[in-house]
Structures are given as structure tokens and as C-alpha cells.
Amino acid sequence: MSSGNETSTEIRPISRVLVANRGEIAVRVIRSCRELGIGTVAVCSEVDRHALHAELADVTVTIGPAEPGESYLRMDRILDVARETDADAIHPGYGFLAENAAFARACAEAGIIFIGPSADVIEQMGEKTAARAIMEKAGVPVVPGALLPEPDADGKYPADEVLAVCEKVGYPVMVKAAFGGGGKGMRLVETPEEVVRACEGASREAKGAFGNGTVYVEKFIETPRHVEFQIFGDSHGNQVHLFERECSIQRRHQKIIEETPSPAVTPELRAKMGKAAVAAARAVDYQGAGTVEFLLGPKGDFYFLEMNTRLQVEHPVTELVTGTDLVRAQIRVAEGHPLPWAQEDLSTRGHAIECRVYAEDPANGFMPSLGEILLMNEPGGPGVRIDSGIRQGDEVSMYYDPMIAKLSLHGEDRDAAIDRAITALKDYAILGVVTNVEYLIAILQESAFAEGRLHTGFLDEHMPDWESGRSVDGDLALAIAAVAEHERRSAGSGSGAGAGSSPAVSASTPWRYLGRFRLAGLD
User: Fold this and answer.
1) Which of 59, 87, 307, 464 has its CA 20 to 30 A from that of 449?
2) Is pLDDT at 488 greater than 90 in this prediction?
3) The domain spanning residue 89 has which CATH number?
4) CA-CA distances (angstroms) from residue 198 to 135, 193, 215, 425?
5) Domain span at residue 457?
């Protein structure tokens, strides 16, 4: 397999990796490095000094205050630490600097391996209109769309020109940020009367989030699915895909539940979409792990949405069905080794589902729930995987994403995976903060979900007025149970600072029932 481009085959063994991230992805990378016998360096903010990733690494360096802009986004400080600790590679994880072309370029200039694609590829795929043009040239289907004219100095768009562009694309249209993603700078426009205001609002939001207010319009695909393909490439000209992930269960364009395989993708459609995903990878001579995202229409028509030039949050489901270790492969490819598999070597077994467990209150506008995790009881058993960087006693901070864990389940088929996910979520007890566990259970129990009738507007259609079924009495009982369990464990330890003590419980403590918690034979 060859892309036809000139590539490097030099092998550069990695001896120490600096992980430029935090939370569960930092823990994930550190563990893969350990398996490979590679040393690790963690960077952390002042509030993360005792975080799990900071404790697992061989060397940990505090790089600044809690604010990401003063710590995890400080490219200069991270590179200084890499030099000081003799790290010869940096793994960016996802988020923070993972898709920052300037950082990837700075690593290369410093002689440090960036475990990811080249700065040029990150730059090309980060600019959405440029990415569209590259994909069109490569024969990858793209959603009909166009770049909007520039606004004036006051941010006002020329109404006649904007209306002409949208009329040509055809209503409804989606106004989108040219630089960035994650649902920011996006507006759905159904009528001409809404267009100018939507463009100006999207531009302002994009400017604030990404530093660039350029927006464009795409034809809005009615009731689409969000289906992405995991791609992988190396410096020897090889590119493959590791099949699809269904990511249609989203809230405000943020994925909540992902699964593979997609219940909508037939073998014939998988072959077509996989071929398009590999063509997208070859178009930029992609190296490392990445994702090609598509919108899939009800009739099997699909369109390129974007390419994420990093490891995805939901990569565990792909690992579960393919039996691969994507982080290990990232490191080996970054060293200059060829891919460990050819396309014909790859296959899937069973079905996997990932549920993102957040410290947030679905019954209160999904407000983040901050504070100490006083008790955590994680589920287990066959086919249950938990990726987390948070433990009992840790704080959910206002400074970072409130995700507590990724709960991934593997079963022999989709029904078995759903049953396993529901059971595991019911066994997941977290006290001290409110979580979305009950909400996730409700989604999985929806008949439309069980039937595989998914699309990106699923939650708005099926769960617009969801209410929690938990009770104040149940919350109080669990709070008492948590204190009793804490005292039992402390007394059993016989020593230590916590022996004989229990957490203070005030009338205002936000206890919530978030799963089934068994204590002393009670359910």
C-alpha cells in the first residue's frame, strides 16, 4: 500500500514521552508507554499536583496555575520541560494542543517527536474550507456549501451577497466556523430572514472561541447520522481504516454515547465509506491516528464533515472490537515503524458502546457539578472497561471538562452491549457530585435507541423534557450509607490519617442518586 508520496523510513526509538495533557487520556498514554518500556513525564497545573496522571508518571513537573492558558496551553513551558527532562517525544492526547499546528511545528524545530500528524496536515485539516477543497479534489463526497463574503469592520455582513450564497446552496443551511469545531460558531438557518443575524452571531462566537471569525455555509442534511471512520497512516506510505463509529447521540453537538459498528451501515456501505476515508487520508499523506467524520443521510448518501487530526475520545470502542491498541500504534508509527496491520488484517468482533460519564446535572440544564467525589463505586465484570483520571477523594474542578470517566462495554452483539451498558451504569455509584448516569440509562432504554433509529437530533426528538426519577429520600439514604461505609473502611484500616473519621455532611451537601449502590445487602 502506498500513497505515492515521498516518505521517510528513518527509525527514531523513543525513550521518554512527555504527555501534554491531563485526566483519563494522560493516564491512558502513560500506561501504554509503560507496556512499551518507555519512560514518561507528566505536566500538571497547580490543582492537579495529586491527580492520577501526575502520580503515575515517572517524572512530574508543575507548569503553572489552574487556568489552561497558564498551564496546559503553555507551549513554551511544555517544550522547556521536555528539554529539561530529556523527553524525546510529546504525546498531546486530545484537546488542549493536540490540533495546534504551531505546537507540532515547534516540536519539530526543537528536534522533539510530535506523536501525531505533521504541522502542515493539522493546518490543512483545521481550516474547514481548505479541507473541503482537498477532499473534493480527492473524490471524497462533500456537503454542498460555500464561503461567505467578508463582514465589514463592525462585523456586519452584506445582506444581498449572503442571501445569494445561501439561495445557491439551498435552505435549510448550516452556518459553521471555518476554524474550529465542537459545535461552537454553528447556526441552523431555515429561512432567508434568519441568515444575516445567524452569520453575525456565529462569527462572533467563532472569533471568541478560536480567534478567527470566518464562517461558511453548508447545505443542512435532514436527520443525518454522524458516522466517523478511524484512520491510521505511517511514514512508509500506508493508510488504513479501522471501521466506523456511530456518534449520533449528541447534545449541543457534543457526543455522549458512541458505538461500533453503526446499526445503519451495511457491509456494502462500509466498504464505500471506508474507501472514501482512506482516500481522505491519502490525499494528505496522513501519518498517525486520525478520524474522518461523515454525515450519513437516511438513504445512504454520505458527505465529508471534517478530519480530526488526533486520537478521538471514543477510541476505546474501536480497540474493543478490533483488538488493537491505538496508542501503542501511535508511538510505534511516530518512531518510524510501519503500521502493524494491513487493511486485510483488520476485522471486528462483537459490538461496543461508550458512555461518557460527566459531573453535570441533566435535570438542571446540564450545569457542571463541582466538588469532591466522596465515594465512587465503579462497575466491573466481563466486557466492562473504564477509562478515568479521577478517583474517590478527587475534586471536580471548574477549570476543566467535567468528564469523570468513559464507560465502554463490549458484547457479542448490539443487544448484549446495550444490556451490559445499562447494567454497568446502574452499578455505577458516585456520591458528592451530580452525574449524568441516570440520563445515560434513560437514553439506552429508549425504544428508538434499541431499534437503532438514530440521528443527530435524537435527544431533542425523544428526550426534550426528561426528568430525573431520583428522590430526596433516596439521596439522603445514600448519603448516610456513604458515611457509614467510610467509617467502616477507616476503622478497618486501623491506622492512617483517615482512621475513625468521616466526611462532614451538611444539610446543603448536593447528594444525588446516580446509580444502584449496594451496601450491607440492601439495594
Assistant:
1) 307
2) no
3) 3.40.50.20
4) 27, 10, 10, 39
5) 355-462
